[in-house]
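Q: A small favour: would you put together sequence and structure tokens for a protein?
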Amino acid sequence: MLDADRGVFEAVARQHWPGAGVLLPKLSRAANHGVLWFAVAGAIAASRTPRARRAALRGVGSLALASATINTVGKWSVRRARPVLDVVPLVRRLDKQPHTTSFPSGHSASAAAFATGVAMESLGWGAAVAPLAGAVALSRVYTGVHYPGDVLAGAALGVGAACAARALVPTRDQGKLPARPRAAAPSLTHGAGLIMVVNSASGSSERAQAIRAALPLAKIVECEPQALEDELERAASLARVLGVCGGDGTVNAAARIALRHDLPLAVLPGGTLNHFAYDLGVEDVRGLARALERGDAVQVDVGMFSTEQRRGIFLNTCSLGIYPELVREREHWAPRIGGWPAGVLAAVRVLRADRHPLEARIQGRTHPLWLLFAGNGTYHRMGVMSGRRLDLADGQLDVRVVHGGRRPALRLLSAALAGPLTRSPAHAAVQVPHLHIERVSPGTLLAYDGEVTRVEGEVTLRKLPRVLTVYRPMP
């Protein structure tokens, strides 16, 4: 077997492919320390589609796992010497020869892991990356630093690393959506009858151009946040279908008006998080346009909170405690430093502040709480993460409580890692159709779909089952 490996290595060394003597050594050097793959990931993510961003992130994550495995276990399991370079032409040899053992090839493992990870999220991007990954693997034999067996073993380990990463954090396509009956909704040829209101403040103006191209008969209205409610009301009075493009707060406002006018809703993600649209399976204009053309729609639940002073709906989450403070802090900093940096800064500032837990009475008992979270539908575990709903019409509130006590940051982190169906001295989680909270202190913040308000006294959370009709792509 080793003799055959050496024979193939020598046969490759005797080959002279046009241009390969210049290109492959440069490609091999570019892949050092994963630099090539980080650049490719950046290029993929720059396309700014959710699928492409997930593909880039999964590719980098798979690469990191493969690299860690190779460097901690692989290189020490079989201590094979590097090939002798006598048969390799001088022009092909790398300027700096590696000093580690030959088996397995780390470059090949990284290339295979990255390409496989990308393909798991996007077959199109995977097909584009695969030839480059293959060329990097070939370059390791062509430049004389690895035997073919080293490359094949490295590639196999890379594919295995990508599969292991998917087991820890499943791809979005792995979640099976429940079979739900189609809702009665009009089929809109070329978007005729749709009025789409676009929140220009959420960076959605470029989406407006894409909507016009995909749905030429739809009416597109771009507006600033202060005019959003008026434009949605005006659109609802004229449209067969109310459309909205923006973040979760914008979608919440559109859903409230669609319910009042008994209209189906078409949602296009255009904000920072877009949980509702993504959990529906709507990621881009093409998918939404296809659903509108076919009349593909379902009915989903809506959450409702009510107090003596006010009531409102939530499509994603409603919470009391630390999280509303984090949302308010994030909104303060986001216009200055951007959404994600503002979220990190807000978390640091809120968790470092000297504060007391919220006191509230739930089901007849008074509890000190750092956080009470209620999701509109059950948030299922995604490997080590939890954060996606597979069913938006399950009739349940996903309620999670982080009890008061010392070290709130540690308690919140343990609750996040533990998943939705756990109980411990620090946190608990249950699924219920309604929840009643008493003795909420005046001025307590309540966050719903990224918006923040103040509540006091009694707060009731409940589900409105299957009251909102929304378009979504069907298999």
